[in-house]
Amino acid sequence: MRLPPPPLSASRQPISRMAELTLGIPAILAAYAFIIWTRGFGEDDRVLFRKQGKPETEPAD
């Protein structure tokens, strides 16, 4: 008869949870942003987010 493996120690559990949060939250946000950017915005909308050059102004007299 085999014994079940011992449970994870209390000292290892918080590290794995912190790793899940550290890697998981940015991954979820990146996936969400990608989906919104590709499906939510059309080409006309994306033009609004592009960096525009400074408009040329004529010198004041």
Walkthrough of the structure:
Helix content is 57%, strand content 0%. By secondary structure, the chain is an all-alpha fold. The longest helix has 28 residues, at 13-40. The mean pLDDT is 81.
Short description:
The chain has 61 residues and is mainly α.
Entry keywords:
61 residues, mainly alpha
State the share of residues found in helices, binned by percent.
55-70%
Mean pLDDT over all positions: 81
**What structural class should be given to the helix and strand makeup?**
mainly alpha
First and last CA, distance: 97 Å
Question: Cα-atom Rg, whole angstroms?
Answer: 25 Å
Secondary-structure map with pairings?
Layout: H1 13-40, H2 43-49
